[in-house]
Write a structure and sequence with these properties.
Number of strands: 0
Radius of gyration: 17 Å
Number of helices: 10
Helix content: over 70%
Order of helices and strands: HHHHHHHHHH
Distance between the termini: 13 Å
Strand content: under 5%
Mean pLDDT: 89
Structural class: mainly alpha
Length: about 210
């Protein structure tokens, strides 16, 4: 279980990096095959049938350079006449912004986490949520022989995915499809959606057995 939690922690970290504004290091991770290799091994290790359905060439960033990737990221996630068409913000897709933000902050506070005093770092941003799931799964991996701590962290991940990240990522995917997003971001979002749904189910089964 510890090894699986470590694997999930690394998965969330890689998703968070892939959804950040792309720089030269990010492009290298894509074009070198690191990102594809990591997720391919992740799915193969879980015997996940999605492995046969992933557009690995899209995730390898074929025919895209750094300028093109940055321009597409900006077009989709950052700017637009009335705001970006596909912002990486949960509140955009689910409404009730204040209540949503307050609940997210309570999650982070409960685990002793606080966001920087910076308006650009939002509790409902995808990067923030993925980093939180990375934190929870990392701590689960470190829980060692404490089954109660591991179970509590597993429940927290299931609840957070169900109430937050997993609830709005499918809506982001539809928005990207409507915007004819480049294959890399569309496939990355589809992969994240599937991963979150599988994780929610797995955590539920794990909690039932503890």
């Amino acid at each position: 279980m510890t090894a699986l939690a470590s694997q999930r922690s690394a998965a969330y970290a890689n998703f968070a990096a892939a959804f950040a504004f792309p720089d030269a290091e990010a492009l290298t991770a894509i074009r070198s095959g690191y990102l594809v290799d990591f997720f391919h091994r992740l799915l193969a290790g879980r015997q996940d049938p999605l492995a046969a359905d992933v557009d690995w060439r899209a995730l390898a960033g074929e025919r895209i350079d750094l300028d093109g990737l940055q321009e597409e990221f900006t077009r989709l996630f950052e700017v637009g006449p009335a705001g970006p068409p596909c912002p990486l913000l949960e509140s955009h897709y689910r409404g009730a912004e204040l209540a949503n933000l307050e609940e997210l902050v309570r999650y982070y506070d409960f685990f002793g986490l606080s966001l920087p005093d910076d308006r650009q770092v939002r509790p409902d941003h995808l990067g923030t949520q993925l980093e939180f799931l990375h934190f929870l799964s990392f701590n689960e991996a470190q829980s060692g022989d404490d089954p109660e701590a591991a179970a509590a962290l597993s429940r927290a991940q299931r609840d957070f995915i169900e109430r937050h990240t997993g609830a709005w990522i499918p809506l982001l995917g539809r928005a990207l499809e409507a915007q004819d997003a480049c294959p890399f971001f569309f496939e990355l979002t589809r992969l994240l959606e599937h991963f979150l749904m599988a994780e929610m189910q797995r955590h539920g089964e794990q909690v039932e057995t503890t």
